[in-house]
Amino acid sequence: MPVLQRIKKPTTHKGKKVLLSKEPQVIENTKQTFLLKGRKTGGIINDCLKDFFSLKKPDAVMLSQKNDILPFEDASFLEQSGKKRDANLFIFGSHTKKRPNNLIIGRLYDYQLLDMVELGVENFTSMIEFKNEKVGLGLKPCLVFNGDLWSQHHEYQRLKNLLVDLFHRETASAVRLQGIEHVIAFTAVEGKIYMKSYRILLKKSGQRTPRIELEEIGPSAEMKLRRTKLASDDLLKTACKQPKELKIKKKKNVTKDNLGTTHGRIHVPKQKIDKLQTRKMKGLKKTSAERKEDRAALKKRRAEQEASGISTKRLRSQS
Amino acid sequence: MDIVNEVLQKAAREAEKFKPITVEKHLEVEFDVGNLLAFDTNELDTRKLRSATNDYLRDLTRDNTQLLLNKVWELPTKRVDEAIVAELPKPSYLIPRSLPVPKPKEPTKWERFAKEKGIVKNKKAKLLWDETLKKWIPRYGYKRAAAEEQKDWLIELPGNADPMEDQFAKKKKIKDEKVAKNELQRMRNIAKARKIKIPRVGMLSTDRPSTKDLHKAATVAKVSTASVGKFQQSLPKEKPARDVKSLMPVAPAAKRKKPNLTPQQERKSNIDIIDKILNKKPKIDLEAAVNREMHYQDSERSEEKKSQKPKAGRGGKKRSAGAGGGKKGKGKFGGGGGGKPGKASGKPAGKPAGKVRAHGGAGKKGGGGRKRR
């Protein structure tokens, strides 16, 4: 039987706040990334990691030490360091004879490994080699996926999800139109993935929407899919589960028409049909005797009301 | 018409200056504008890709980016600090969370009980007026402790306590035990929330164990062997202690506990009890009542007889042949009086017949009752 370890209550308010921030939140912070090197890394992988780090800044940490680990055999080190740094995405670079210029991209869920994909890097051109103006730090990039492979192949589908997770930065409610100036494109064709990064130049088009021109700023790489370790569909489904609080409840009785006008349906009480004024007809007119009777009744009622009103007044004055 | 043509030509010339923002695609490109994503599923031109990779990829990406940004520019915009921002819709492309969805906090045992009973927490004032110190002191916290120390510099010996006993130490021990109990309960609540099984506590050590405690300990110790006490010898007339089920190595059967009454149920049961008391009506056992009445009348009659006996004796003397008449009477009425012929012989013959008949009838009924018993 497992013995429950003593769970100490936080003694200070600050400590309590730290512990609370580590608990699952409804709206999560931006995922952090950590980049690390394997036992041996070549020049290409070093440049690659550097460029990825600069693409991911400021939501990333670069670990300078070399790590003698093989993530596909034992991912526990990655899980540990992810928990330690509260980071959920990792990029691991290594170089061996069997798998030269190896890049492993992966993510954690609940500090456990979710997905991991191994990519072999070829024809790498780093950002420094493109001598031009780069994009600003921390801008949300546009991500473009070209090729039918991304939607047809299961592994590519997952890799697409992973790449979106890695590069989309954070979910934003609004974006500055002049601030959209970075595109990262992934093209999958014939078993190769081309990664390209461009700066967007907004040109005049004679309309409100500008004409787009692109200028390559790097990094650019050709990658080959090697080994993969993907999460089961069930696990991915639970990982993608959204909290109830974030789901939008449908508003009742409010509609919008094509012109953008909002219509609300409100409660209308039942119409009094018996008192409705309809068409006047001679046959339905009251006779003089009836009218006299009505008038007498009205008079009587008024007199009664007056009498009662006086009596109440008197009572009030007495009291 | 010339003017119209001129204007149209001018517009065409203007348009020629700019490159188009429209893009033709065989299959429609999918977008998730909330995440600024574009998925182009069109087939790629592999020949072009091989011959001029960079140019081809840039043109392809430009087209797709143009389509995506056309969508973004259509979105409603607003001005924030001299910058135009487009309001993005909610992302539709699902990305996994980093941690599971937060679960609601598990209620503690007390919270569960309070909810069942409808006990509501009410706010209490943080400061309390102290009569002896003549100042406001907090309900809890270090300032309260300091005030208590100031107040209790002397503790009166209670009743018939041992004068050598340290009352301060005793007070501290009570407090420490309360704290320990609270901690235990807190841990138990955590264990329950995390669905961890807690090991049984076992025998707790006490300073001066009673005979009962020792007996319990002996019983538990006996079964605490590898063979669950199968080969342990027992003393003559040795009996296992009671209430050791929870301490035994064999897991006890799940305890059955009556669920707590809800406030409504409790109210109802209390009202039922009061109603029962207030509306108490005497139970009428008709048969018993009749029997009692019979007995009462019988005894009354016998009393009467006893009181009349001296008179009857005189009467008897008057008519010595009365016995014969009595016999006749028995045959005539078949009354209860007939059941006791000896006594009937002493009966006055001159008694009014109606009374005798009435008694006789009642006597019969009573006789039947006796038989049934």
Write the layout of secondary structure elements.
The complex is a heterodimer of chains A (319) and B (373).
Chain A: H1 13-22, E1 33-37, H2 43-56, E2 60-66, H3 76-85, E3 89-94, E4 102-109, E5 112-125, E6 142-146, H4 149-152, H5 154-167, E7 174-176, E8 182-189, E9 192-203, E10 211-216, E11 220-229, H6 233-239, E12 254-256, E13 262-264, H7 288-318
Parallel strand pairs in A: 1-2, 1-3, 6-8
Antiparallel strand pairs in A: 3-4, 4-5, 5-11, 8-9, 9-10, 9-11, 12-13
Chain B: H1 2-17, E1 30-32, E2 37-40, H2 46-51, H3 53-74, E3 77-80, E4 83-87, H4 109-117, E5 127-130, E6 135-138, H5 142-151, H6 167-193, H7 211-223, H8 263-278, H9 286-318, H10 322-333, H11 341-344, H12 353-372
Antiparallel strand pairs in B: 1-2, 3-4, 5-6
Biggest chain contact:
A-B, 76 and 66 residues
Going across the major beta sheet of chain B, what is the strand order?
A: 1-2
CATH superfamily of one domain in chain A: Brix domain
Query: In percent terms, what proportion of residues of chain A is strand?
Result: 25-35%
Instruction: Specify the overall morphology of chain B.
Output: elongated
- Going by helix content, strand content and strand pairing, the class of chain B is mainly alpha
Radius of gyration of chain A: 36 Å
The count of β-strands of chain A is 13
Would you identify the CATH architecture of one domain in chain A?
Answer: 3-Layer(aba) Sandwich
Uncertain runs of chain A are none
Structure class of chain A: alpha+beta
Largest sheet of chain A: 10 strands, mixed
Strand content of chain B: 5-15%
- Structure annotation, total helices of chain B: 12
- What name does CATH use for the topology of one domain in chain A? Rossmann fold
In quaternary terms, these chains amount to heterodimer
Instruction: Give the N-terminus to C-terminus distance of chain B in angstroms.
Output: 132 Å
Helix content of chain B: 40-55%
Helix content of chain A: 25-40%
- Per DSSP E runs of 2 or more residues, the count of β-strands of chain B stands at 6
User: What is the average of the pLDDT values of chain B?
Assistant: 81
